[in-house]
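Memo to structure team: turn this sequence into C-alpha cells by end of day. - J.P.
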Amino acid sequence: MATILSPEGTKTELIGTSGKRKALTLRQMQDAVGGLIEHVYDRKGKLLMIINEEACYTSAPLNNHAREIIAKAFQTTINEIVPIRGPVLLVTDLGNDVV
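Reply from structure team:
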C-alpha cells in the first residue's frame, strides 16, 4: 500500500492488486504518477517516493508538497530541491509490496 500525493496536497491510498500480498504492480505505479517511474531515496537509501521521471518536461502542476518531504529528508530547504511535477507515490518502504 502507498499514498498518491497530488500537487494540490490531497492524499489517496493505493492498494496493490497482485497476488496474496496485494502488491503494487508496475502498471499501478505508472498510472499513479502518470508515466514512467523514477525512485527517490533518502540519505540512508530508504525509498521515499516514486515520481514521474518525465514530468519535469511537461506542463503538469508543480508538487511542492513532495518537494517539502524531500527537503525534510535531506535536511535542506525546498529551494534546493529540483521541481517535481504531477502526482507522486509516497512510500515508506515498498519492500514486499511491489511486484
